[in-house]
């Protein structure tokens, strides 16, 4: 029952030899959602043993090179691997132009179906929805560049059946789905067994929000309220707050403020400027405001466990 | 007096976590010539501490993704680093289209001058020439895809002065350049001192040939004859010779045959299929025919030393 994020790249525009540009993959029940695709993403997918054939959805936040330059290589590799599954790509309308132009110029045969979905970037938009999960985009603040955050949210689960009680009342299998949905059970003699006797609350649905690149932008707080895990960029330290503002990036402190205001479970900071070899400064600065802060580092995994409280 | 090749990527189309796609850099007297630019090249340049600001010439063999997908990211990084130097890129005419389209679509400001040079690929062509070095391209055989090999050749050096003999005959500084070029020296009393007394043969000029991607193609032998170091692709083993032929690649044995026929100094094989985790098979197969064979591995350096024999 996984809900696990793997960091493929944690750096900002200039990659270092240890930190690749932005890319992450979220494993929700063994479906892998790729988020951003900086140069080298396919290499990191191999390094960290992510099953590439299970990636059917790619979400691209914005059209800066450090978030997209790995996409054409990944699409080509899918082709060489004989991929047949449809691939859905969610991003700015320019992204489709960029990819289609390259495929055509290079005469690359892509045998699978590529489906581009346009993110308008001006409001909350549902990009993906199935029985268990929804993915929405929402606008961030990155200058004139339209830039989207992404919110991954499990749907509410049906109630959990109490196996011993079902056995005790001899509940037939045909009734179980209804009981999961909250129905009571009526015995042959007419006695009503309340649903609360037969079931317990289901595990809480889990959620993840991805916010990069962005200046300090409190308008996102209601959207990401209470998520279990928040990734928020922290390109700079507080000492460079002016530079952060000018370049539409955030400081570690600002990331922590957003986490605090949104009452999230845990904060993960990343998109570090290449100048920082040591990231303790970022961790300390954010942790002072929001103690449950962690550093995004290439290859690290962050799980949200199922919770029955 | 370096003439040193660094392998940045040694794999064929599908990169592995240990072998990046094709890219190399040749250091000739502290000028760095980049050859091919697969995805992740900029990361490898950082990892192996190549001074990026000294790269002013990039040679691209052909328009397959595993040889070019790192170029747009590298050009963007040059921009972010504030590069001002002209950058010369040698490749197929489509390469300029590919790069210009991306820069325009992404509204990337490139403050330095980008100069594209078209490789026609049908004959030997001198791409670069200065006082010490020439770089030529020549056609390889890679199906319908025009594909160029590159030949880097130091020019002949002037003769080496014998310092002790110059002091003995009290040769003025103004005469020395002429003597380096082979002139005799005439003493005040009219006696002629033969050049051979005053100088010795210069070190041999050094050379490197880069041959990938290509089927077995003996027509290149006269072009690369006697080079000190030959890089030749060896995507497959002899057991897959049919597949090599079909995909216009070479086996390790074929690479060695070319090296033997061309009487090169040393052979370096690379562009390995991702299926091979262990490359001993390639090394053994080639070494049987051409003993001075080495494996290209990411990060390895191969020097051609100055030779006075």
UniProtKB/TrEMBL annotation, chains A, B:
CDD domains xrefs: RNaseZ_ZiPD-like_MBL-fold (cd07717)
UniProt GO MF annotations: 3'-tRNA processing endoribonuclease activity
SUPFAM superfamilies tied to this protein: Metallo-hydrolase/oxidoreductase
Positions annotated to bind Zn(2+) 2: 66-67, 213, 271
Protein EC: 3.1.26.11
Cofactor requirements of the protein: Zn(2+)
Active-site residues, Swiss-Prot/TrEMBL: 66 (proton acceptor)
CC cofactor note: Binds 2 Zn(2+) ions.
Highest taxon above the source species: Bacteria
Catalyses which reaction(s): Endonucleolytic cleavage of RNA, removing extra 3' nucleotides from tRNA precursor, generating 3' termini of tRNAs. A 3'-hydroxy group is left at the tRNA terminus and a 5'-phosphoryl group is left at the trailer molecule
Keyword Transmembrane helix among record annotations: no
Domain Metallo-beta-lactamase: 204-272
Catalytic EC class: hydrolase
Keywords from the named record: Endonuclease, Hydrolase, Metal-binding, Nuclease, tRNA processing, Zinc
Residues engaged in binding Zn(2+) 1: 62, 64, 142, 213
Subunit structure: Homodimer.
Function: Zinc phosphodiesterase, which displays some tRNA 3'-processing endonuclease activity. Probably involved in tRNA maturation, by removing a 3'-trailer from precursor tRNA.
Family per record: Belongs to the RNase Z family.
NCBIfam families xrefs: PRK00055.1-3, RNase_Z
Protein's name according to its UniProt entry: Ribonuclease Z
Organism: Paralabilibaculum antarcticum
